[in-house]
Amino acid sequence: MGFEGAAGGMGGGVRALMRRKQVDSERARPAGSSNQLRKELSVAQLITIGVGSTIGAGVYVLVGTVAREHSGPALTLSFLIAGIAAALSAFCYAELASRCPSAGSAYHYSYICVGEGVAWLIGWALILEYTIGGSAVARGISPNLALFFGGADSLPWILARHEIPWLDVVVDPCAAFLVFLVTGLLCVGIKEVATFSDSARVITPFSENMALDLSSLFFFQSSFVQGVVTVLNCFVMLFVIIAGSYIGFQTGWVGYKVAGGFFPFGANGMLAGSATVFFAYIGFDSVASTAEEVKNPQRDLPLGIATALSICCSLYMLVSVVIVGLVPYFAMDPDTPISSAFAKHGMHWAMYLVTTGAVLALCSTLMGSILPQPRILMAMARDGLLPSFFSDVHKTTQVPVKSTIVTGICAASLAFFMDVSQLAGMVSVGTLLAFTTVAVSILILRYVPPDEVPLPSSLQASFRRSHENDEEKLRDTLGYEDHEEGASEISDVVVESIKDPLIEKQLYASKLDETKRRKTAACSIASVCIGVLVLTTSASATFLPFLVRCFVCAFGGLLLLTGLGMLCWIDQDDGRHSFGHSGGTCIAAHLATLLDHIYKFTWVTHLAAASAAGFICPFVPLLPVMCILINTYLLINLGGGTWMRVGVWLVMGVFVYIFYGRTHSSLTDVVYIPVADANEIYGSSSASGFVA
């Protein structure tokens, strides 16, 4: 009895890990729900959020740290590799964001496509990513501020960094103070920002949107001031590129003439640098997390993500080319690499100009780093995986104030105690895990999209009534045919057709083929994931003998290529065109399906499907598989110390899920039904007034 109970509990736990929620989960919530967010963001505001959230610590702080410890002069290649991986992920993000526009970003997508267990892991990692991201940015502000006071140790005593000898820790009160300041602005700065908006109407075309948007976060992010800060920051970057190039040609690019060559730490050091600078690309992920507040997410989210990422990646690479050439990598200042590089060449006025841009950019990025965290907490609390405390939205401001305060306290504590290099590596883990899961979600969406959706307990009675009515109609139809002489010819034809053995055989064969295709696709996706993990792990395991590494790499590569080949050979699921929010018409969806059968693997398919679903990720399955491969390899190349620190956090998350999330999930008492039945039930319920 005890064994059976344990087995049943284990089976229930596995089922809980595989639970998936529906795409449009908002329609299951009442219209008057208190945790709804206002839709006010446009493309320009999304680009402002993306660029303002991204350009900051990645270029003003990490350039020095990564060049000194990992990449050397090959820093540009580190940014390039991280940018390519981010671009691949951006395509996947764009499709999922347009199909599933809701707060939660990668957590929301993985909950829909993969399952509750993976979604919890990603959500828990994103909590770490965004909290630590804000802390790392805050730690980068204080050294730049100190330059205005005369040097690195010139800040007032109450704000200056201090070393605690017995703990070997350097605390940063200024960083903690800035986090608290931003948190307070996000929570209580509504009236002040609204007043500013009223007084600035003649200056900015966005001021009317500012007056309408009651979220303090987006008041600031989409305001005239935020836009000006972002534009000024871009101009500072252009100044660094132009002025730095002039100095480099005058001095002969001394940074590229060091004794260690272009790869002083080897290829592995360059790749380790790529994994660390991934922290610099989390801004477009912030754009995706605002999906629920975008006016036209199917059109605007892909444009906002692609534009923000393109601007940031270009600026990162150009700045790194210049700065590494001005100063040898081992002589770079880890805290203020760009301004110090100009100071070493006698351009002190340029140092102050760059420092001003750095402070503005880092303050903007600090707010952008804290931007998504309350939304992630709110999305997880909506799903029951965290206490409802985190899903509360202030009635007046429509801001998740409680989640914002908790985020601010945690970020301030980390900023006070931990240094940038430790924080940046931990942020990269969350970013890379999220990007990898999003790519896997694209493969699942295309080949094995969910064919069943959860039905809330409030609508299960409606589902039972619908089935009872269908059965009653069927009995009436059959009874009328059997006992009444005057059955119509049409009814006879329908009944006889259903009973025709040939038609029954064809229907059964079609269903069997589809089941076989889905199983083959699922196995192929699993083969790709396992192959990538084996290949990247063995390739990075330099402690293994050479022949062993080659054998294991070959085995992993075989699994990867086999899975990829099968995905290219089998058909994608027809249901992918109607999955999630549609930007086009049903006719466009049917056209895309028809062309998919006629013109396989051509641009015609993607063009037609794009009209049906807003944005379609190109080159599937190749692009998502490349994304999974690159991101996993970068994950493997993060340091052991980083993985130990992140591992502790993930283990804590496992216990939280086991003892709270698993039993409080909103999917605990749901019944899974076919998608077609769910659409019918939601439609009838909406007409009856049960659901918004």
From TrEMBL:
The chain crosses the membrane at residues 43-63, 75-94, 106-127, 175-196, 217-242, 262-284, 305-329, 349-371, 399-417, 423-445, 521-540, 546-570, 607-636, 642-660. Keywords: Membrane, Transmembrane, Transmembrane helix, Transport. GO terms for cellular component: membrane. It comes from the Eukaryota. Residues 615-665 form the Cationic amino acid transporter C-terminal domain. It holds the Pfam family AA_permease_C. This is Cationic amino acid transporter C-terminal domain-containing protein.
